[in-house]
């Protein structure tokens, strides 16, 4: 029993499941995620990883089971702004530049756009591409532009769906760095991946999806 | 779930229970509809005297007016079921709302065509842009919109929720359409026709009319039951109770 | 016979009254038959699915060796 | 935690985003305008050049043409945002979704309906509508077009989860538009006949106020249904 186990979990699922056309997409899930923890959601294609993350983000209605946020039933406005979701679709407008996209994200989160954007984009490896339309970036660069949101916006829980897809080795190391510093500062993250991933910082929790 | 929903309603809302319940009642509702329809039509077509103004043409009233009432009644049922479906996510309410739509569209269509067939000999035109007629036409489009939206979705339950939402928007809209067309008619004087002039109706004509109204109500019930049963089989295809039915019917 | 002819003539409005009634019954008949046909189709599809599933289950023990 | 300045800046960010996007694709803005002009041009050819006939139908033709041109552009209101996932981000943002959608609808109205209103006098002139009626026509358009944008946004949100939505949208939206068309065209017709036209305009304004309050909420609810699958 570590200290983390006794503290109130950030996110707790009890017999959580989702039905599509009355067929369960995955078997009921039980897990706890504490602040400072990283969970890796594993499973084959079609095992419901993306569905799970969309449900945790609040995009999908919970079919059965319970989901608790800091010990209380999850409600839309209680966790608003504390969760960042990065899905298959990156949420970037192709006609806008990475800087403009970041500015919108900051505005939607009620933040003043500051000098932050430039340094965030530099750290994510997009220096020199700040004002290029996202349309003209490569798939990996688009991914980086989307990941920049994670650095700019404060959130306690990251839900990342396939964050490593389309990234080169440096990009993968970058994501691992991001995750490490996020968990070190008390954040938590859930990451789906069907490949094997090596984290530098300790062994992540594993949540296995079954049909 | 809200605790104030009566327990029997909650039980009836479970698909297998409703399937059995509807299956038991459906033949009786259909039999009543046929019996009342036969009595009403005999009274209306044979016993009732010809109208002193409209002669025998008025006999369309015995199907036209009940159909018109049914079109509005079914829309109301669909609206209430849609509301229940959206608020409490009860599957049976979704089924009732979505399976009411085709029946409602059928009655609305009958109302429009029989009204046209009645209007031609009586006021010399197939159609006029009267508030009632226009509202009925808009009602038909709303029914068709609900059906179309329902079938446009891959996920049936998602489609049902979206279409239920449209049905509720429509409920707000129909009175507004009626009001606006009435206003429009005051602006364009001369094109108005007094559709239902004399409302005094003799008892000989009234009882067949009311009997036909009851008959259409029972018909709706019967049709809804058989549609809802089919829909439940399709929606609950993975469940054991449906499998049992499928196997039982195959062995028969 | 004469009475029947008179009835069918509908005082000269037969061309309006009878099509109205014909439409009424035709539409409602179609509405009654549609769910029956659909029911037959749904059950047939369901049985086909069940047959596929049971066929898969019979194959399964062969492909996956017994594990403790 | 979320105070007023942050809400205002979120609204501003949303509005600026959609207007910037519209500006980057200026060509798309021109499309409904060209469509409306061409449709208006077809009427004299179809009906003959008689002034009295064209004058009589001018108000109605302009209104219906503007409505159809808006319908053309409506379909795209949420399409690209759904495709690239920005709608998910919007739904998850810690701001009232209805308000954000209200901003989106406002931006959409500015980008599609406003250009149409600007060329409406030209369309009216093509059909020889008397000059004195044109202010009433513009007033009717200023009140009726936001109504259509708001109503349309709700229905577009409902069809957002489907693949084939164009014709379906028309089937659902056009019957709902009947009152707006009646009152807008009624005001123009009354003005043309020298009758008081304030009553229909007042009804339009009342409907608009109601729609401004309710439509964004309905739109938010509809979008949540559309994304929930």
From TrEMBL, chain A:
<keyword id="KW-0067">ATP-binding</keyword>
<keyword id="KW-0472">Membrane</keyword>
<dbReference type="InterPro" id="IPR027417">
    <property type="entry name" value="P-loop_NTPase"/>
</dbReference>
<dbReference type="InterPro" id="IPR003439">
    <property type="entry name" value="ABC_transporter-like_ATP-bd"/>
</dbReference>
<dbReference type="GO" id="GO:0022857">
    <property type="term" value="F:transmembrane transporter activity"/>
</dbReference>
<dbReference type="InterPro" id="IPR003593">
    <property type="entry name" value="AAA+_ATPase"/>
</dbReference>
<dbReference type="GO" id="GO:0016887">
    <property type="term" value="F:ATP hydrolysis activity"/>
</dbReference>
<dbReference type="GO" id="GO:0017004">
    <property type="term" value="P:cytochrome complex assembly"/>
</dbReference>
<dbReference type="InterPro" id="IPR005895">
    <property type="entry name" value="ABC_transptr_haem_export_CcmA"/>
</dbReference>
<dbReference type="GO" id="GO:0005524">
    <property type="term" value="F:ATP binding"/>
</dbReference>
<keyword id="KW-1278">Translocase</keyword>
<keyword id="KW-0547">Nucleotide-binding</keyword>
<keyword id="KW-0813">Transport</keyword>
<keyword id="KW-0201">Cytochrome c-type biogenesis</keyword>
<dbReference type="InterPro" id="IPR017871">
    <property type="entry name" value="ABC_transporter-like_CS"/>
</dbReference>
Automatic annotation (TrEMBL), chain B:
<dbReference type="InterPro" id="IPR002541">
    <property type="entry name" value="Cyt_c_assembly"/>
</dbReference>
<keyword id="KW-0201">Cytochrome c-type biogenesis</keyword>
<feature type="transmembrane region" description="Helical">
    <location>
        <begin position="68"/>
        <end position="88"/>
    </location>
</feature>
<dbReference type="GO" id="GO:0005886">
    <property type="term" value="C:plasma membrane"/>
</dbReference>
<dbReference type="InterPro" id="IPR045062">
    <property type="entry name" value="Cyt_c_biogenesis_CcsA/CcmC"/>
</dbReference>
<feature type="transmembrane region" description="Helical">
    <location>
        <begin position="205"/>
        <end position="222"/>
    </location>
</feature>
<dbReference type="InterPro" id="IPR003557">
    <property type="entry name" value="Cyt_c_biogenesis_CcmC"/>
</dbReference>
<keyword id="KW-0812">Transmembrane</keyword>
<feature type="transmembrane region" description="Helical">
    <location>
        <begin position="162"/>
        <end position="185"/>
    </location>
</feature>
<dbReference type="GO" id="GO:0015232">
    <property type="term" value="F:heme transmembrane transporter activity"/>
</dbReference>
<feature type="domain" description="Cytochrome c assembly protein">
    <location>
        <begin position="24"/>
        <end position="188"/>
    </location>
</feature>
<keyword id="KW-1003">Cell membrane</keyword>
<keyword id="KW-0472">Membrane</keyword>
<feature type="transmembrane region" description="Helical">
    <location>
        <begin position="100"/>
        <end position="119"/>
    </location>
</feature>
<keyword id="KW-0997">Cell inner membrane</keyword>
Automatic annotation (TrEMBL), chain C:
<keyword id="KW-0997">Cell inner membrane</keyword>
<keyword id="KW-1003">Cell membrane</keyword>
<dbReference type="InterPro" id="IPR007078">
    <property type="entry name" value="Haem_export_protD_CcmD"/>
</dbReference>
<dbReference type="Pfam" id="PF04995">
    <property type="entry name" value="CcmD"/>
</dbReference>
<dbReference type="GO" id="GO:0005886">
    <property type="term" value="C:plasma membrane"/>
</dbReference>
<keyword id="KW-0472">Membrane</keyword>
<keyword id="KW-0812">Transmembrane</keyword>
<dbReference type="InterPro" id="IPR052075">
    <property type="entry name" value="Heme_exporter_D"/>
</dbReference>
<keyword id="KW-1133">Transmembrane helix</keyword>
<comment type="function">
    <text>Required for the export of heme to the periplasm for the biogenesis of c-type cytochromes.</text>
</comment>
<feature type="transmembrane region" description="Helical">
    <location>
        <begin position="13"/>
        <end position="34"/>
    </location>
</feature>
<keyword id="KW-0201">Cytochrome c-type biogenesis</keyword>
<dbReference type="GO" id="GO:0017004">
    <property type="term" value="P:cytochrome complex assembly"/>
</dbReference>
<dbReference type="GO" id="GO:1903607">
    <property type="term" value="P:cytochrome c biosynthetic process"/>
</dbReference>
<comment type="similarity">
    <text>Belongs to the CcmD/CycX/HelD family.</text>
</comment>
